[in-house]
Fold these 4 entries.
Entry 1:
Amino acid sequence: MTAGAAGALFIVATALLQPGDELVVVRPNYATNLETPRAIGAELRILDLRPEDGWATDPDALAALMTPRTRLVSITNPHNPTGALIPEAALRRIVEIVEAHPVARLLVDETYREMTYGDPLPPAATLSPRAIGVSGMSKTYGLPGIRTGWLATRDVDLLTTFLAAKEQIQITGSLVDEAIAARALERRAELLPAICARIATALATTRSWLAAEPRLAWVEPRGGVVGFPWIRAEAGIDPDAFHPVLAGRHATAVGPGHWFERPRSFFRLGFGWPPPAELAEGLVRISRALDDATFG
């Protein structure tokens, strides 16, 4: 148990990586998965995902980046910020690739796993002793305030190392927070159908808006509650103006592309949290900000 999924990611990176160690990681990505290894001094070998490929994580492309020095391969599934999904066959292929390298381990940030559209993928830790799964209560269950997450591995020695790292970082979690998390998980079968229905409604609203907004494009997500649209180059929109106009004039927030080491013409659009009316209004405000950020 950790202080949210972010705490789990920090424990994995600091326990497994030292200066000069090699990490293979996909990008765009949640900042912790890039910045913590950089702060440690690890050597990042980056697989840049592309919208023209549907933001797919190609197992062969990951394999091409690995060397005998690769200590960790870091992926997210469903992917943050694009919502792309690595199918189970491809995920198992990635596991095989990692197992073929003597010192490598696989980190799967699976925070959105239970929000896959369709049957959820198996937890990463069930696929191999070399795999580490990270998740938490913030996303699927909408409980970011209790700061409860976890990491899972079948490697007992590695788990002992992670527990030692946790002791140095946070000692223990809040028993009150963990009790609340336990109650939510006990009600999982009751809660998840309503959560998934709400996600489906929000996705449909977002899909309809984007279909009618010619200045934007996206690859529709296949899991989670985020997508990664971009402003079309031919739309005549100034991305540098769009984000401050959206926040300052229209009181609406998205995640600018540079947060994920992509151009500012991209942005992470979260559609799962707002109530239906608030989501619809927020999407309208994005269109208004595009109007205001038009060149000339």
Entry 2:
Amino acid sequence: MRLLLDTDAFCLLAAGGFLHDAFEVLGVDLTGCRRLPAVPHMLRRGGLRKRLGAELCDPLIPIAYQVPVLEPPSDAWLDRLTPVHAIDAGEAQIFAAAAERRIMVISGDKRALVALKDIEEFVGVLAGRIVVKEAMLLALCDHLGAEEVRRRLEPLMAVDTVVRVCFSSGNPDPPDALLSYYRELVGEVAPLLLWKPPVGDVK
């Protein structure tokens, strides 16, 4: 196991057909990736389906089954996160497993990351291992071209604010907008160090 996907990240990448592109950017493959056990259930019913809609969720269910399921982390790491209200049970499993096994995470949960920055043990072991969606989209723009990324993200325009702002037809420079979001997030989660996408303007 080398990479964990939280539910938001899985939905973004799978809906845009970016999973294998993201794996290529990060130097992993499907066998080294894991997702939460509840993802197919969440796509069928509940808050995730209500937010994204059936038309978006239904095609993602068979894709979710192709991604291996995360083995539970030990209580030693999980217990550090369970009292933190801003980190839900799924994110707690993801972060605990990543910290315990020293592996990377693609996360779309800004609220959880802002809370994670205050937990010293996680700040140390996860430094440079957390890939936020803005960083991944920057890397994908560099890898595939911004217009190709824009085209594939069309189904997500109505449900994702960052996607809508950065990739709207009126924005001529999606990477510049993504970089602005990324730099803002870097400041908000400090001292937690995020993964830097391998593009020229990121410092």
Entry 3:
Amino acid sequence: MTLNNTEKLIDLILARRSTRSFLPDVPDRQLMDRLIDCAAAAPNAHNAQPWRFYILEDGQRRMVLLRKMMQRFARDLERDKVSRQEIDRRTFGSVETFSQAPVLVLACLDMTDMTGYADEPRAEAERIMGIHSVAAAIQNLLLAAWAHGLGGCWYCAPLFCYDLIQKSLDLPQTHEPQAFITIGYPDTNAAKPLRKPIDEIRFRR
């Protein structure tokens, strides 16, 4: 990689922002496939490539799923003694976020090709390695989207209702929902978020 390209890559990483507000234009399928290709180039444990991506194109099916998720979310908040006004605000806000995104991607973990262990500690470590791998792929997806003039945001809502999502979308049992990624063309310039100074996150021993 040339110095010029290196600087472009660094600038891309530092410039990327989470985008939560999009124009209505929908990225075409070819571009989305390109982003998935970039996601699949991520480093991963054993080269098992334990990621599976679903692009939720069926608007009606998406809304049915989101309504079910909203109902589950509302029940959880009720158990937490959250006020009805706050429950309505948070649940309807979540549905709006995921329904209005031009593209909604569901990232799943598939442990099928990961190493199996009989003992719990190593099995848990292997599972965490799989989750790390999916997370790396999601980061690649977001960076590739930004490089193509798209914005995106990573949401972990599926972790709280993975069984509901599996059933609603008729997913294989081995495809475990991990995250939603909203993708689209930004309609605003997101502000740079505050980051901790390097002295608070970098240590030497």
Entry 4:
Amino acid sequence: MFEDRRRLIIIGLAIAIIVVVAVILWWIFRPQGQPQNQAGTTPQVETGSTINTFGLPPTPPERLEQEKKYPLGLKQLAMAFAERYGSYSTDEPKKNIQDLETQMTASLYKAESAKTVNTGATGFSGYSVKALAADLLSVKTDTASVLVKTQVTQTNGNGGTPNVYYRNLQLGFVKAGDQWLVNSVKWQ
């Protein structure tokens, strides 16, 4: 009799563990439906409503029109480009240019690829660029100019202290379809 009771307790515990695991797995992998408000009901958005699903007013048409004209993200694009463009090492001196091919016009890529990299002394030398800020100098329908302020860290293989200095990089952009491409690069 004691064994039967013991067996029932073990079976009951095993079933309880299986149920708990199943509930936890269901909770983790349950399908996410429409967002619900605090009352537990799904908010409805009617045509012409002033509030969308997230409880925010719709974007004004003036802002949408301005965003079509203004090159959104151009500063961020310029900063990312400057960091990659200025960062290189003697181990792979043209790798930065190759990585940026899709972000440059064909003529700029050809010109940058043709440049000879003067490594100076023997041994390792590398440059790491961090973009600090970007200013839109001019923006037109299909051209733009951005000045990126950078911090350059030069490292030599001799284990000495890295040399840190600041430079500006002026980038000229042209619009190709919906994409902005770098057409000119000038360190200042």
